[in-house]
Design goal:
30% of the residues lie in helices and 19% in strands. It folds into 2 domains: 1-50, Uridine Diphospho-n-acetylenolpyruvylglucosamine Reductase, domain 2 (2-Layer Sandwich), CATH 3.30.43.10; 61-320, CO dehydrogenase flavoprotein, C-terminal domain (Enolase-like, domain 1, 2-Layer Sandwich), CATH 3.30.390.50. The chain is globular, with a radius of gyration of 19 Å. It has helices at 12-20, 32-39, 69-73, 76-81, 83-90, 95-98, 103-108, 114-117, 159-165, 215-218, 267-273, 280-290, 302-318, and strands at 5-8, 26-28, 47-50, 62-64, 169-174, 177-182, 205-210, 220-225, 236-245, 248-257, 264-265. It starts with a strand and ends with a helix. β2, α2 and β3 form a beta-alpha-beta unit. The chain is α+β, with helices and mostly antiparallel strands and 320 residues long. The strands form 3 sheets. A 4-stranded antiparallel sheet has the order 4-7-5-6. It has a 4-stranded antiparallel sheet with strand order 8-9-10-11. Strands 1-3-2 form a 3-stranded parallel sheet, with helices on one face. The longest helix is centred in the last third of the chain and has 17 residues, at 302-318.
């Protein structure tokens, strides 16, 4: 194991300042993704700054970054104000992982693409001119059907689509202070570089996330399909949120996970539904619109069908 110094921060601000002083330092929350990166020798940090002792004072409508997925998954308040977020947290990984994994870590985790994680392969994110997942004969069963910027990795966070659907805002802390960032803007072009899974700069940390309960968040649902019911990432997932007024769609959000390098919002499908009644024909049209721009790879055409069916199921459930 690579040698490093270990520090324990008492606040997110203190952690951000410690990181800013050390260009090769990494923050450690639960450490689930971090330990994998260390074992895969993708990182060799000079220092680890632990966030384990950091606690944010509770406040209404505020979700501290250190909140575990288990806590989110059994939150009775979320069950009423944002059921999709609660469902996404409750279905993640395994009970053991949910008891350790945090909201902040789930949002900031790095792609599980084996070509990124395996140093023997060419990877567009790591600076290669090609994406190995898109090469002839590649193993790409789990990759994106909406590649972006030359990268076909699949975004692993199951909480991000829900928070984007709920117009959630992340509080990001750095050595210079703090700023509010819409969760949708935490994710950008994967071609920006090796660690471009988020738009956060070195030394920036997610301190908390907040959302305002609205008709959209209250009438929301999370659907996913994975090969195993435990210890697995989704093949595809979707969050649908619906504001129905007098039998017509006033507003809608459809945000997909595990099908693009970043959470994928299906704005064309949303536009198709607004102002109309939600019958079976409209549900079918909307689901088809979600996957209309998909460009699946040689080994993941099944993801197109899976995503389409998940959208149909989600919209039907919300229309009951």
């Amino acid at each position: 194991m690579h040698r490093f110094a270990y520090h324990t921060a008492e606040s997110y601000s203190a952690a951000a300042k410690a990181l800013a002083k050390r260009p090769e330092a990494w923050a450690k929350g639960a450490g689930l993704d971090l330990l994998d990166l260390l074992k895969e020798r993708l990182i060799e940090p000079s220092d680890l700054v632990s966030l384990h002792e950091v606690r944010t004072p509770p406040a209404k409508g505020l979700l501290p970054a250190h909140t575990t997925l288990a806590e989110l998954g059994r939150d009775e308040g979320l069950a009423k104000s944002f059921p999709a977020l609660m469902q996404a947290a409750a279905e993640a990984a395994t009970p053991q992982i949910r008891n350790r994994a945090t909201l902040g870590g789930n949002l900031a985790q790095h792609t599980r693409c084996p070509y990124f994680r395996g140093s023997d392969f060419a990877c567009y994110k790591r600076g290669a001119p090609v994406c190995s997942a898109q090469e002839q004969g590649a193993f790409n069963r789990y990759h994106a059907i909406f590649p972006r910027g030359g990268c076909a990795s699949a975004h692993p966070s199951n909480l991000a689509p829900a928070l984007i659907a709920g117009d959630a805002i992340a509080k990001v802390v750095s050595a210079d202070g703090s700023r509010d960032v819409p969760v949708a803007e935490l994710y950008g072009d994967p071609a920006r570089g090796k660690w471009s899974d988020t738009t956060l700069a070195h030394g920036e940390l997610i301190e908390s996330v907040r959302f305002e309960p609205t008709p959209l968040t209250r009438r929301s649902v999370y659907k996913e399909l994975r090969e195993r019911q435990s210890f697995d990432f989704a093949l595809a997932s979707v969050v649908c949120a619906l504001d129905l007024r007098e039998g017509k769609v006033h507003a809608v959000r459809i945000v997909c996970g595990a099908v693009a390098p970043t959470p994928y919002r299906a704005t064309d499908a949303e536009a198709l539904l607004v102002g109309k009644g939600l019958d079976e024909a409209q549900i079918t049209k909307a689901a088809a619109a979600v996957v209309a721009k998909a460009t699946p790879l040689s080994g993941n055409k099944h993801k197109v069908v899976i995503l389409k069916r998940l959208v149909e199921r989600a919209l039907r459930e919300l229309n009951q």
